[in-house]
Amino acid sequence: MILDGEIKTQLSQYLQLMEGEVHIKVSAGTDNVSRDMTALADELAAMSSNIKVEQTTLERTPSFSVNRPGEDTGITFAGIPLGHEFTSLVLALLQVSGRAPKADQKVIDQIKAIKGDYHFETYASLSCHNCPDVVQALNVMSLLNPGITHTMIDGAVYREEVEAKDIMAVPTVHLNGEFFNSGRMSLEEILVKLGSGPDASEFADKEPYDVLIVGGGPAGASAAIYSARKGIRTGIVADRFGGQVLDTVGIENLITVNYTEGPKLAATLEEHVKQYNVDIMNLQRAKGLEKKEFIEIELENGAVLKSKTVILSTGARWRNADVPGETEYRNKGIAYCAHCDGPLFAGKHVAVIGGGNSGVEAAIDLAGIVKHVTLLARSELKADPVLQDRMRSLPNVTVIEQAQIKEITGTDKVNGITYIDRVTSEEQHIELQGVFVQIGTVPNTEWLRGSVELNRSGEVIVDKAGSTNIPGVFAAGDCTDSKFKQIIISMGSGATAALGAFEYLIRN
């Protein structure tokens, strides 16, 4: 049995939602993965009379495709989609059976209008929390457009192929045999990259808002909900809805929620905002702010949005190491998510840069996958003692404190790291095959320099009501000088900024 009893109970409820017949075509050999894949297909067929299994030969063995009777949808899984990808399999079964995918009609029309042949391949790992978003989006595109096909490839199963193509980060997408993108992408982001995104003309007729929120993370979502509930005209413009939460794996400190994961929380945030009359403008990046009759926000596509008040909630991003070699070898041995990319470094020697909680947690995660982990900290470790104790108990982890990184070395990909011992001033070099950077965050506020007052760290300076130095402009969340950067604190500051903006509107 591939599926345990609890998963089967949950799955049986989903399979009852199937609307028509689905044919699973299995391309299997004599290897263990093929045997387990065939067993999985047979278990699915035994659970629903709508699922039929047949043997075939596909481009890769082992793999299987999910099809309508007499029609290939172009959806293929090269590997066994369990772990984080199990949801991708369930959705593929439901959608191929006839259930409509959850996508706006405008997006569906864009997909159907794409002309030409597009053969996508997504290299993924089953522990990657970002991969399912890409896999599911491309599966939907394959389902809606006969010129599009998509194959999910488990990098752990097709390790030789992954190494031959120098794939060292997941998800990595190839289009028609060439590199297309690496990292998390939504359905809308893929369409933008294919040239089907909105341009400035789509924003030309928008009336001024009462409150315009810039940023769609926890602070922005909270601000949007609190503003909309006041009955005022509210808009939210975001580079990507969910923000940095989308890159977060386990969340265990959100009060009343024992455990959740970043992408799931981001989805619920967006769903909650959509319960209100909020104009959501996703995949749009702001590049300028100016106070005139209204406060004007200029977008990178050239559009200008106007509002009586603005709430800045642009969040933060992972901080780069800013050393020679980092840019050259990004996704060629340098990674920023141990949980996602760790399986690609199985059996190898890797380094983690960073002595805080995120660095130590990454070292612990990687120790169970790779041959050896070397953790390099610029000073002494600052992680919680319980995490340090856990890490130091692992036999394949070496900790080097007082290490100043000088260079990440390589040829076509990473082959080592050079550091200076800050106590002895001696230069040291370690040969390795991967580097994971875990050194905190930097606020997304470069575009605000010269307009809004920032501190030396680039954080927006706010008062207790979330006000900035510009009347009518407020800020919330990780882009501000708030002392602590936590999801729950961002949500609270978003609510504070929205109430501050509403009070400003009343008084002015």
TrEMBL record:
Residue pairs linked by disulfide bridges in the UniProt entry: C337-C340
Domain Thioredoxin-like fold, residue spans: 125-193
Source superkingdom: Bacteria
Keywords (A to Z) from UniProt: Disulfide bond, FAD, Flavoprotein, NAD, NADP, Oxidoreductase, Redox-active center, Ubiquinone
Catalytic activity of the protein: a ubiquinone + NADH + 5 H(+)(in) = a ubiquinol + NAD(+) + 4 H(+)(out)
BP GO annotations: response to reactive oxygen species
GO CC term, one of those recorded: protein-containing complex
UniProt entry tagged with the keyword Membrane: no
Cofactor stoichiometry and binding remark: Binds 1 FAD per subunit.
Signal peptide: none
UniProt-annotated binding residues for FAD: 210-225, 468-478
Positions that bind NAD(+): 349-363
Molecular-function annotations in GO: flavin adenine dinucleotide binding; NAD binding; NADH dehydrogenase (ubiquinone) activity; NADH-dependent peroxiredoxin activity; oxidoreductase activity, acting on a sulfur group of donors, NAD(P) as acceptor
EC id: 7.1.1.2
Protein name according to UniProt: NADH dehydrogenase
Gene symbol of the encoding locus: ahpF
